[in-house]
Automatic annotation (TrEMBL), chains A, B, C, D:
This is AcrR family transcriptional regulator. InterPro entries: Homeodomain-like_sf, HTH-type_TetR-like_transc_reg, HTH_TetR, KstR2_TetR_C, Tet_transcr_reg_TetR-rel_C_sf. The lineage of its organism: Bacteria, Bacillati, Actinomycetota, Actinomycetes, Streptosporangiales. It holds the Pfam family TetR_C_24. GO terms for molecular function: DNA-binding transcription factor activity; transcription cis-regulatory region binding.
Amino acid sequence: MSPRRRDADSTAAARTRRRAELLGIAADIFAERGYAATTIREVADAAGMLAGSLYYHFDSKESMADEILSTFLTELWESYDRILQEKHDPRQALEALIAASFTAIDRHRPAVVLYQNESKHLGQSPRFAYLDASHVRFRDMWVGLLERGVREGAFRSDLDVPLAYRFLRDTVWVAANWYTPGGRLTADTVARTYLTMILEGIQPGPS
Amino acid sequence: MSPRRRDADSTAAARTRRRAELLGIAADIFAERGYAATTIREVADAAGMLAGSLYYHFDSKESMADEILSTFLTELWESYDRILQEKHDPRQALEALIAASFTAIDRHRPAVVLYQNESKHLGQSPRFAYLDASHVRFRDMWVGLLERGVREGAFRSDLDVPLAYRFLRDTVWVAANWYTPGGRLTADTVARTYLTMILEGIQPGPS
Amino acid sequence: MSPRRRDADSTAAARTRRRAELLGIAADIFAERGYAATTIREVADAAGMLAGSLYYHFDSKESMADEILSTFLTELWESYDRILQEKHDPRQALEALIAASFTAIDRHRPAVVLYQNESKHLGQSPRFAYLDASHVRFRDMWVGLLERGVREGAFRSDLDVPLAYRFLRDTVWVAANWYTPGGRLTADTVARTYLTMILEGIQPGPS
Amino acid sequence: MSPRRRDADSTAAARTRRRAELLGIAADIFAERGYAATTIREVADAAGMLAGSLYYHFDSKESMADEILSTFLTELWESYDRILQEKHDPRQALEALIAASFTAIDRHRPAVVLYQNESKHLGQSPRFAYLDASHVRFRDMWVGLLERGVREGAFRSDLDVPLAYRFLRDTVWVAANWYTPGGRLTADTVARTYLTMILEGIQPGPS
DNA sequence: GATGAATGAGCGTTCATTCAT
DNA sequence: GATGAATGAACGCTCATTCAT
């Protein structure tokens, strides 16, 4: 790595790193207090700077939420797309998607909380059109998967697919509200336990 | 309208009805936009009056949320308590509690949304201490029921009770976000379908 | 007194009596909390009615203050005028005026407090022009009396008349802030004690 | 302006000066219109800024009054305490205290007016408890001084001390309502004239 | 004479945002 | 990169006042 290269790094890359750091702080507070109830002064305080200084890094409060959410969704869909390409068996795909979702919660907890609590609102502004688009993709993915699973006998034939889709979607994301990365349960454990409940129910099986 | 009707109607009863009407409007908007993001002027607009006029009926924005939430929770716990007294079989109790929850969503949809989205923030103020108290009662109720069910063989012996409690709790209330009273699905239908998924899972049973 | 006469009394006179009663209540609160800081709801509460009901009796909050102050000033000037006609000796006139002022405090304490605290403000509105007029008359009366007294040897020849006027004026009225009718000191006692201090000073006399 | 000057000037000192400037403006208007009747917008207008901008400098309207009053009282008591330590003769102490009071009026006229007109109301809030404390200290100081003066023969033996205390207190402070710094009379002249009236009275002495 | 419900203006305060330094 | 001071719009709320009943 040439010195020239390192210099370029210490500007562009350092800037990127600082942005990410600030966004992490913002995401934590947005998730904790709610987007509307969070003041950018609170974010700035937590970052050890004055409110006005944040505007050197970001255009607006909205743009922070935007960057937090779009970063999260981009990464999420990358992992989903990888799974959808690899796993053709509905049951296996479902397992992998659920696991990937819990991994996302583990890695982007505040972003997930933000997504869950505020996407309805924010989605109304054109800037956040991708949130609604993501919802649609989400629904299509799950509904498609469930319908195929029913056809292929992986899932109960009497499944109410639209309802089951919402059941799955909500059940998974809502866990971000109580899951603590590094706590008693790892993302993987939670995922497996949830999967068992979802697939086999909570009453005793026949075996 | 006969004088008799007007007499019975006037004063206390009419006031109560007007308050309820206004609270209904407020609850709808709080649920739709979020409590913090809702302005008193939006509520007043929707009620066809000026912002200040709301203060003839209510002390503060907070007191509106308070009345919405406490009314809902009072009614909810009345129905829960009735069930807990009547149904001693864990499985039957669970079914009845889930059904009662969906009935509550049907009747108090905006209040449920408000409860779910804002109780964490509001609960910090002493005035809303009953929200946290309700959470605790909730947890104790479900955890107790699940543990008893496991002991008595009604539920899987390997159930992770704390996790299952959260699964049940979230799964049910989160439905308030999409459920439309008077839509395709009645509260009862949703409750029965959810119950089947929760009890038996989504994969085909052996029977 | 004919019945007809008594009927007329029970309308006009009763109305007058009620107004006076309400004005007494208002004056107490205006004096206690300050005019600007007093809400007409507080006055109405104290009178056992609703805020709106006061407007049956009075045009506005201002008109209450108006009536309180003008009633007080009319009576005050009546007593002053009587004295000025009777007492031609400066020293005797001064004594009588001071005594009359303390009598006014005794009988109209809240009005005096209101007068003292709010006349500067209220005087700016044309409706209260008589307040400024009264101030001028006041000053002319005292300054005239003091100058005559100096000329005639009743008061010190080196008296700074404008300053002494303010001294007398303030000294007397400000007592309304602590004087309690029916307390340890009667208006007359206070008047006599004040007079001694004003005339002879607080240091020991030669006698 | 040299850089040296600007450096010494900047940050803390400049901020303090700006605060003092704004407080001076606020004090003028509070004194002129009354605290309750003054709007924050009036203060901001006079300062050439918008209402909200004041909140960059001060927490609240109340905190402005607080700072104005506490600054004044601190300085006043410093001068009083110095006198009480130095002058042991009651008559000399009284003269010095009256003079110091007029000096305080000269330097803090609006603060004195505010103190006199609003301390009764403001004193009820815990934040302004020091106002009541100051009243008590005031009374103790004057009553103590007068009693000692009577015992030692400096003041008339028949003096009604509690009444004389109020007489002195009011007489002095009330002058803030008409005294104009830089006008015909200096604070010192007023003080001396007042003192003569207080000590020797307004009627001709025997000498 | 009084009530109950509302109006409309304005208040103290907050907050995202801007910008010269 | 960050600060300090300000803007301007809006917010929750208060209050004198009105008026049909």
